[in-house]
Amino acid sequence: MKFIDEYQDNKLAKALARRIAQHSLKTVRLMEFCGGHTHAILRYGIRQLVPKAVELRSGPGCPVCVTASADLDKAIALAHLPGVIITTFGDMIRVPGSYSSLQKAKAEGADVRVVYSTIDAVEIAKGNPQKSVIFIGIGFETTAPTIAASILKAQQERIRNFYVLSLNKLTPPVMKALLDSGEAKLDGIVCPGHVSVIIGSHPYEFIPRDYGVACVISGFEPLDIMLCIDKLVEQIERGEPKVEIAYPRGVKPEGNKKARQLMEDVFQISEANWRGIGVVPQSGLKVRGKYEQFDADKVFSVSLKPSKEPKGCRCGDIIRGTATPLECQLFKKLCTPESPVGPCMVSNEGACAAYYQYGAADDL
Amino acid sequence: MDDTILLAHGSGGKLSHELVERTFLPFLANPTLNKLDDSAVFEASGRLAFTTDGYVVNPIFFPGGDIGKLAVCGTVNDLAMNGAKPLYLSLSAIIEEGFLLRELQRIVQSIRKAAEEAGVSIIAGDTKVVNRGQADKLFITTSGVGIVPPAVDISGANARAGDKVLLSGTIGDHGIAIMSQREGLKFSMTLRSDCAPLNRLVSQMVEVSSRIHCLRDPTRGGLATSLNELALQSNVGIVIEEAKIPVKEEVKAACELLGLDPIYVANEGKLVAIVDPADADKILARMKKNRYGRDAAVIGEITSEHQGKVMMKTRLGPSRIVDMLSGELLPRIC
Fold it and tell me: Cβ of B334 and A10 within 8 Å?
């Protein structure tokens, strides 16, 4: 495969950095919504390449991080039910809930399995007909179509012991919630690349129109992100915020219709509970009534103690973009990837994990 | 029907003897092993190096090797990383009931081939069979003994400021080859594991220079983890340049797809050498003449600053910390 080095070219990066420096006059605050972007920014040292006037903040785009403690508690309680196999994406099992984690539940005897794709979870259900196999559905518009596909597959193949606990979330509504709160004081948003492959660019149009905030969709290679920052700074300096695609090889304005149809067939829009943000209307996906036999929320009931957040943990602020990991008292002290206090230190896509793993020279 | 391993093969009785005599001995035969005594008796003098390692790789067959080749190369390489000339290995196999006999034979043949290439003999062995589910197909543990030539002093604690950091070739080949075969993540590619014995490469390096300070094979945790270990052990700082690290196109592509960084992906046939700067060119030239060092490169150097830490100048220019791998390598979700 080609076209990787091309997007990491040192000379082009420097030229873009110079361009950004040339037209950057105002101090601007940009939020990279997606955890994948946060990681690329720190991994390649993009923070050091852009002028000081351009501040980069991480956002809520880490599927594991935004899963509410109460939802995680529910997943853990489900894991302890007799005859249940929990299947989930890898990072999820290490995240501390209010009282435990899926990893602890596993050590205590619960059957918790990491899968790489939802279809594997369906296969596990097929292979264990006497057990109830529950997939913990997390993620945004990128993973929701694959989870929808797993429910359809289970239906087609008459697999009656496969269930989804749908904790899926939607991107544009939470962006709206963040902008409504006004806390993060954003000038521009580095919009998620993979989510936009599915939803296209139209759903972001309310952001420049109603909030005057610039939006540019970015890929995940370092030059993609540099180009995106350049376009954002240019829009902000000109005072002409709009939605632009700086990732045309991946994103079409209309997105991927087929994937969206799959999502719409299986899920209906509902409110969702976001860690650090709270309940946001119309920002989640629940399994539609016609597929309720696959809906873990309908089929199983568990009683839960009230959820609580770890003391001193600022994951909530970091998810909302009102603090950086460096501002958290626990960061690198009580909270490390080996013994994480909050979800942002656990996930591969979490901001704290990225700051920890890829600290810049001046953080030494 | 295919012959399978039965619990009785581990009973110590007739079937156990048959298994050893038909499956292991014909391939691994040597005068010491053939005696089938309770322990192997051998001559050795000088400074000895001794190491042991367990192998539980999944899947057991992968492009470029299998658990047998890995069990030989891994232990041979651990000996070589202290400059030792590997001589003898012991090999203990824990086999899950129901394992196919022909697969076991294939693995024993591969053990023999790897041992031949490395120039080592397997002089002690053991087999056990456990109930289905108590092991995953086959676990192998090998221990190895080697002789350290006089005047060779290679240790992870020997790096000094000014030393050069050499890498013997492309990184991430083994880890990505394994991941490409793993259940649920299968993707098709032509990449093969780099699994190989490095002892001859090391002895050629030692021949041209007596100033090789540290050697390490960056297996689990990848290059990043090995460099961090060396920085801590020697209490020095290490600076490397991302652009100088050789990575195959296929590995780059797979890493981009999965959201992984090749410096954390496992290798089984690569080494990092920290050497006196005056000898770096000479050592590099010798490495390049060996098939396992063809793509060798100088990737960085040792500094007295930021002791215990590894810094990397990224492809784009800025520098950042390179930490050890924490937790498991997992593909991204979104």
Answer: no
